[in-house]
Structure formats: C-alpha cells, structure tokens
C-alpha cells in the first residue's frame, strides 16, 4: 500500500468480520425470490420472438380462460404517462419509454421484448397461459449495429425521435425521424490549432461488443396492491427509493403510497437500477387482489435486461516529438438499445481524463438499435472510450519510441490542470498511480517464454455523490443502532459502521447496522457510481457530531458545568473534574431525558475522482488461439481504504469483469436480430480456473472533500483491462487488435495463413 499524509485511525483501515456474513453463509439471509406471502400468485411473461415488429393483434382470452389463471396484463393496463425525464439511478429515462419497455405497446423493439404477463396459482400454469396468448405481428427490418443504425437508410425504431443537441457548435439533425437520440460535444482549447502544432498524428478505430453484468441472482419482484391503494414491493435492487420512484411514475401513484422492502441482492453492477418486473407484478396484484411474485429465467435476463453498450470509437491524438500531447479528438458512438439513454456522456467525460491535453474535442452519439435497453455496468461508458484511448496511446508510444509509462507520466493530469469540460482537477492521484505502476516489481520483472507479452493501461472514473440519509440511536448499553437506506452490495454496512465507530471512539462491534425499507429512513439514492461510502461517510460524521453534542450536553447537566467545558476525547466525555466513558454516559440517558436518536441527510458534491493502472502478463497458444493470463496487478488510488479487504475484493472483481470483456464475453446476434447466446454456457464469462490471483496495490491519496479521505473504488477497476490485455497481445504476437473481445477465433483468424 502506498499512502500519502494518511492520519492514524483505530477502526478505519482494519479488517473486521462483515456484519452480514453469518446470515449469508448460514442461509438465513433472504433474497427477493425467498418472499412468501399468504395467497401469493406466480407471474410469467410472454416475450417477442422478433427483434422489430408491429403488434397487429393481441388476444389474451384463451389465457384468461385457463383454470388457475387469476389475471393477465398488457401495455393497455398501464395509465398513460406524460413524456419527460426522470432518474433511474445511474442515468435517466422517459416514463413513456419505461412503460413500453415493461410491456410493449404498438411495437416490439428487440428479441425478448415483454408483451404480456400472467398471474396464476403456480409458475407452470402461468407459463402455460403465456403460450395461449395469440399475437399477430408485422415483422419489420431490424438493425443491431450502431454504425448501420446511424445511416439514413436504416430502419427507424421510433417515428417521433429527433436528435437532441447538447453543445454549442453542433448542428441539429434535419427535422426527420432518426435513430440518433443525442449528439453531445465537449470542447477545450482549439483542436485545429493543436493538430497543426503536432509533429506526429495517429488515428485509430475501435469496436467493443455488448457485455452483460453477469450477476448470479436474476431480477425478481413481489408486489401486493392492497385494498387501501397502497403498494408494497419486495425486491432485490440497487436502490429501493429509485425503484419506488420509477414504479410511482409508470403507475401514476404517489410515491408515499409505495413501500419497497429491501431484500439481499445477489449482484447488480449497475444492471439492477432499472425496473422490469415490479410494476407488472403490481398491476397483476391489483387485478387479481392477491400478492404476485415474479422472477426472470436466465435467458430472459440476457434477452431483456440492460447490458452495456456496444460501441464504435475513433480516436485521433497529436503529439510533439518529445511526447507532449497537443491535441485529441474522440468520436464515440454508443448503442442505447431499444430506447435512448446509453452511457455515452460518461464515456465522453472519461475518455481523455488521465491526461492533460490542451486542445481536445469529444463527440458522443447516443443511438437506438433493436436490442435490449442498455443499463449501467460498472463505470458505465468508461471502459469503451478509455480502451480506445489507451490502445492508441500505446501505438503512439511505439511510433515515438518512448517507453509507454514514460509517455503517460509526461502527460499526466495533475491538480489544477483542466479536464475535458474545462474545470480544474482537484487533488487527484493520476500521477501517483502512474508512478506506482512504473516502480512496481511486476512492471520491472523479466518476462519469460515465447509468445508472452506484457501490457499496461490506465483508467479513470469521476465517482458519484447524490444523496444519502441515515439514523442512529444510542442504546442504554452503549451500543449504537445505525439505520441505513442504501442497499449493501460491496460492504457499505461495514464501511459506514466503521466510520461511525471511528468518529465516536467505539469499536466496530459497538455499531449495529441495519438496511430498512423506504418508509423507515430518509431518502437514499441508488447504490451505484461508487458513491455510497463517500456520501455515507458524511452522513455518519453528521450523526456522530449530533450524538456527541447531545450527550455532552447531558454530561454537562449532570456535572452542573457549562456545555463548552465538556470535551469528547478517545471515546469519553471529559469535564473539568470528572469523566464518563461513552457506555457510562449512555447508561445515564434514560434518567436524563431519554435515549438519543439523531438523523442526517447529505448531498455533498466533493467526491474524489479515482485513477487506476493495470499490468498484465499473458501467453498466447498459437495452435488454439487461447490466451492464458499469467500475472495480473491492479494499482488504484483509493483515497482511504476503510475496510481494505472489501476494497481489494472490489478491485479484483472489476478486473475480472474487464478481463471477460477483453477476451470472451459478447452478445451474438444473427441478421434478424435474434440473440444466439442467452445462457451462461454460451455467454463465456471467466471463472476462477481461468485466472491467476489478481494482485492489488492500493495508493492512498486522501480526498480532501471527505472526512476520511474516501474515494469510490468500485467503478474504475473495470476500465483498464481491455486495453492492458490488448497491448499485451501486441507485445506477445505483434498484432494490434481493434475490437473486443479478442476471442480464440479472432486470434486464429489473424495467425492462420490466409487462402
């Protein structure tokens, strides 16, 4: 671990046992699909066999007549909602499109698009009823490639879609239907002047496939719409308030009438921010007057939930002979799936972030295609744009005959330099990470064997802030109940309990954290964007300050001294002559006015950007095209590691997902837009025996905008792997690849003799 000016802590930085560990290893933890309610029905969904078709006729009468069926729902059962923009966690959406994605309206827009839903006495009856629903389609041409979708000759998905422009100097499209939903432009300096000053100019084109988050637990949702008009939802999602607000919008029900119960979650990575089943289950519940439970089979997860965008990126960089970057242009086209809303905006902001380039322009395009609506996936948008930039920089280093890390260090972003939107960087760790990569024993070791190669790449994520709330209650025995509303995916129960314990001078065992429903805690934004520990740390600091102030006042009253003469030091209240430990003072609360409960909400925007650098060694088998990862090191500025084991796990997990993107994972569509690999058997994710141990080195450049210096850690480790592996492949076999994944077939196509 590399640390800079890190304070000494007693709890923060230790590795206590996770609060939810026992429940999970013993099976007591309850996930969404574990929900059991009296009189509960089971739901199933009929999905489209076509990628693009008009629904000419939809007849549900035979399904409704099947014994054991209690309700059938279609798009017509949703209220008509107004067009607009609303948050869906790590992105935005139009409520009209949200409804049409839940159950198709006039058209189906992708293979697997939901059309109708059935609630029945058991799952098999519900599925049998779906098979009885009659649908007449007018099949339309489909488009599943982002560049083809941008052509004037492409099939149009939405007749009323027009390009939105988000930059000065960008000409709007003609007043005609288009698949290009958004064109944004970020500009800094004078791009033409910069390229004119360059001694060397390099331009390259890259493609990335569509990747799925691959969480173990499928989407699920149970709903009970009671006779008083209140809706209770049990579900495994990343944000209960986010789900509540989306359901309220599509059902036109006041959010206060919806309660979302947080169940444990079996992975999300951004993919469990959008709603898919909860409002459908609610409609079926209202029609049947019974609670309804739904979950997705695995093929439906692939077909109809949000993967990340497939992309086309064109990168152009100009440099002086000494390696100074003088100009950069990125052209980024991202697939949004069937409805607008790809992460191209984040990709645009991240593309050149590790580097100080005086003159740059980033053009981003959000493009609809006949595929599932994309969702966030760990640093959404950044892996594609930064893969393209990092690959181009490595080729530029070779052209200039400059060592790759020396070229990066020469152009590193530093505090005060301007980012892509023209704002100065705060305290950041880009240079510290680059130096740690260059000095690491892995980077400086000798590479052994034929057809082996080493690659490096950098990554960036700006990290989120948003809003968090919490409540803390001091018990008479001195323990503190900590009430949270953020879903715990990466260890937030532990990290927030540790920060509260640190501020109160207590131990981790003295804090009892709970995640509760939307009626029992203040508003909390989604668990995503690497925001929870950052914003949660501010909440726990505010809670601790209130607790200390109120308990100090009680101690002052007992001692009959002014409140300002009571100090809180090392977990004790210290007066002019006397001293109470925290537990002693807690025991006196019932007799001095009652126990203390405090609440806090934070919406600070001082989150710290995060940078990472990855080193990979690999070997290529020329006969099979298989790539073996020999050694992998992930270096990352984490600000302050609250629970180092959790931080290491986040970094290792992100690196593994990025390795999958680089080498194997991809959605495979045929010419008609049918997904051909909707299973874990055919969608090839790396497993434990595919990989070595991922070594982690944490760099700690504390974020001055946080009480403990926290920077979010969960997003940025997925960013460098694609470029690092691509650069290592070039080092191993001398071939530059311009599309991921670089599967064995792709490698053999390059290595085998051409006819």
Structural account:
There is one protein chain. The model has no long low-confidence stretch (mean pLDDT 96). Helix 11 (382-400) runs parallel beside helix 19 (721-733), helix 15 (492-504) runs parallel beside helix 16 and helix 18 (644-663) crosses helix 19. The chain is of the alpha/beta class and 755 residues long. Among the domains are: 32-140 and 217-299, Aldehyde oxidase/xanthine dehydrogenase, a/b hammerhead (Aldehyde Oxidoreductase, domain 3, Alpha-Beta Complex); 426-463 and 608-755, Aldehyde Oxidoreductase, domain 4, CATH 3.30.365; 467-602, Aldehyde Oxidoreductase, domain 4 (2-Layer Sandwich). 27% of the residues lie in helices and 25% in strands. The chain has 20 helices and 31 strands. Strands 4-8-2-16-13-14-15 form a 7-stranded mixed beta sheet, sandwiched between helices. It has a 7-stranded mixed beta sheet with strand order 10-11-19-18-17-12-31, sandwiched between helices.
